[in-house]
Every structure is written in structure tokens, then in C-alpha cells.
């Protein structure tokens, strides 16, 4: 008598199923993932060590789509291009972002992007400590912008508490499907201009770090 067939599992199949769960519900559990794949929870552990590994596999899956090209032009243009690529890929699965930010980055795929950013900032003359600060700043901006794509069509209600300036700003929005993209480009221009202003290669004096009161 033939043995009953068993559902094929692999880290890739588990990762894709976990991404679909997070896209739908905002999170995943090992029992829920097993139920979705119609296997016992113990079967998952034959392919992955647990939740943390799946999160890193999902990070690698998303960031594998980021196109990292070699330096071509100014370092600031490289950073802007990488930021756009970063957001484009994360925008497809914005509900993954809270999971990713809660776990240490370990994926080798992710370091393709971070290496390119580090190289660009180093070419701009930033010190190693400033390179890390700059990468963190870009990271925060891009991830926040990707989350904004999952916001409702009308982000702010016109509340009675809104002052005149806020009401005037809200009057320009309305249902606008391009709002998030326009806000991202505005923010990116502002961010890049600020980074360029602080770059030692620009010949401008570095902004002094705030000092603690005596």
C-alpha cells in the first residue's frame, strides 16, 4: 500500500507563507503558519530554527529585490538612488517593517544595501561614526515612508482642534493617491540636502555637536 503523500516544505515555502500571513494580519505564529501550510508545527522545525530565523529569511527575501549599482556620479546621488530602491521593495510589504525593526539585522543580503550606503557616505568624507548615524537616518526615513504607503487614503481628519495653518495644509490634500510618493520625494530632497551640508567634502564647517549644560 503506498504511503500517504506529505506536503513538500522548504525554507523558501515557509518564508513565502509567512510573508503572506503578515501581509494579511500584520504578524505570524508558528502554529498559524503550520496550519496555513497544512502541516504539523513540528514539521516546520525540520527546515527552520524558529520565528527569528523566519524573520531574517523574510528580510532577505524582500531586500533581494533591491538593485545595488556601483558608484556613478556624486555620493549624494548614490544615496538618493539607494533610498528609492529601498523604499520601492519595502513598499510591497509594509506590514513586515515592525517585525524587521524589532530584530537585529543578520541577513547577508541586507548588507548589500548597507555596504553600498557605507561606501557612499565614506566617499562623502564622513567619519565611521557619522557613517553609521547617516545610515540609521536613511533607514528611519525610508522605513517610515514605506509604512506611509499603507496609510488610509485620508490620513488626517479635519478636527476642530486643527489650527488655521493645519487646516490650510489639509485643504490641499483630499483623496490623493500620489501624496505618499510626493511626500517621500520632498523628504528625500530635504534629507540629502542636510547630509550634503554636513559632508566634510563640501568644504563647509561641520555642525558642532550639542554640549551638555555645565
From TrEMBL:
Record keywords, A-Z: Repressor, Transcription, Transcription regulation
A Pfam short name: TetR_C_1
Domain Tetracycline repressor TetR C-terminal: residue ranges: 71-198
Keyword Ribonucleoprotein: no
InterPro entries reported in the protein's UniProt record: Homeodomain-like_sf, Repressor_TetR_C, Tet_transcr_reg_TetR, Tet_transcr_reg_TetR-rel_C_sf
Protein's UniProt name: TetR/AcrR family transcriptional regulator C-terminal domain-containing protein
Keyword S-adenosyl-L-methionine: no
Amino acid at each position: 500500500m503506498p504511503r500517504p503523500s506529505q506536503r513538500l516544505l522548504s525554507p523558501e515555502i515557509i518564508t513565502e507563507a509567512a510573508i503572506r500571513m503578515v501581509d494579511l494580519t500584520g504578524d505570524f505564529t508558528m502554529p498559524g503558519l503550520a496550519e496555513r501550510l497544512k502541516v504539523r508545527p513540528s514539521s516546520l522545525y525540520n527546515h527552520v530554527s524558529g520565528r527569528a530565523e523566519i524573520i531574517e529569511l523574510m528580510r532577505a527575501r524582500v531586500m533581494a529585490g533591491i538593485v545595488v549599482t556601483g558608484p556613478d556620479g556624486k555620493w549624494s546621488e548614490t544615496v538618493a538612488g539607494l533610498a528609492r530602491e529601498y523604499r520601492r521593495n519595502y513598499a510591497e510589504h509594509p506590514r513586515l517593517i515592525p517585525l524587521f525593526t524589532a530584530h537585529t539585522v543578520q541577513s547577508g543580503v541586507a548588507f548589500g544595501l548597507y555596504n553600498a550606503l557605507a561606501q557612499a557616505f565614506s566617499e562623502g568624507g564622513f567619519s565611521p561614526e557619522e557613517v553609521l548615524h547617516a545610515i540609521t537616518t536613511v533607514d528611519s526615513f525610508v522605513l517610515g515612508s514605506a509604512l506611509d504607503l499603507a496609510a488610509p487614503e485620508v490620513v488626517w481628519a479635519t478636527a476642530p482642534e486643527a489650527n488655521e495653518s493645519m487646516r490650510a495644509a489639509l485643504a490641499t490634500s483630499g483623496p490623493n493617491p500620489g501624496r505618499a510618493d510626493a511626500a517621500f520625494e520632498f523628504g528625500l530632497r530635504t534629507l540629502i540636502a542636510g547630509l550634503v551640508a554636513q559632508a566634510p567634502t563640501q568644504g563647509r564647517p561641520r555642525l558642532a555637536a550639542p554640549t551638555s549644560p555645565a
